[in-house]
Every structure is written in C-alpha cells, then in structure tokens.
Amino acid sequence: MRFLLSWVLKALALLLVAHFVPDIYMSGLDVALIAAVIIGLMNMLVRPVLVLLTLPITVLTLGLFILVINGCLFWAVGHYLQGFEVQTVMAGIIGAVAYSLISWLLTTLLLGKRLT
Q1: What is the pLDDT of residues 2-20, one digit of tens each?
Q2: Would 71 disulfide with which of 33, 39, 92, 113, CB 3.0-4.6 Å?
C-alpha cells in the first residue's frame, strides 16, 4: 500500500513540475504514472552507470555534474514518452531538481517518514 501511495505522490509531483516549470508538458495523470515508473527505473538502472563513467568530471565539479546527469535522464524520458515533453536539457535539469524537491516534500508530509 505504501509503495502505491508513493508512486501516486511521485506522479502528482510530476504533474506539479509540468505545471510550474516552463518547457515541460504533461498530458494527464495516466502519463504521469507511467513517467514516474520510467524515471524510477532510469534512476535505478542507468544513473549509477553514468555516475561511474563521469566520475572524474563529477569530482572536478564538486558533484554538480550529477545535476546534469539527472537533467539528461529527465529529458530523455520526456523525449521518448508520448504525452510527456521536456523541450530542452536545461528544462530537464530544472525539472529534475523540482521533481526531487516536490516528491520529497509530498512524501515526507503525507507518509510521515522518509522512504528508501
């Protein structure tokens, strides 16, 4: 039950990001639910490989390059998923940061403790 509620909260966070961040568009809740799953899978499977491959530049930028990786993954999901559009990589970076903050806030407020 907690997993399903977390999934719905992440989808709502995506809808909020699409509403507030320019250049990000979401067609509806059904697409947001699918996008939340795909973003979660990308963060679980692809992100660790990219972080490992870009470790030297991440160290040189004191970890700020991770924002670029997150933004590129967010942009990639928006590029390939019909109904979810992220027009630029910069919008992807801003959207990824906003998505992380909003989903963390919603999860903390509504579920009461941090999810791992």
Answers
A1: 889 999 999 999 999 999 9
A2: 92
d(CA 70, CA 44): 12
The token duo for 106 is 């919603």
The answer to whether the beta carbons of residues 36 and 83 sit under 8 Å apart is no
Q: Are 93 and 71 in contact (CB under 8 A)?
A: yes
Report the number of secondary-structure helices (H) and strands (E) in the chain: 6, 2
Q: Where are the domains of the chain?
A: 2-111
Closest CA to 89 of 39, 24, 34: 24
Q: pLDDT tens-digit profile of 65-88?
A: 999 999 999 999 999 999 999 999
Those residues whose C-beta lies under 8 Å from the C-beta of residue 87, and which sit 6 or more positions away, are 23, 24
Q: Which has the closest alpha carbon to 74: 101, 36, 33? A: 36
**84, containing H or E segment:** strand 84-86
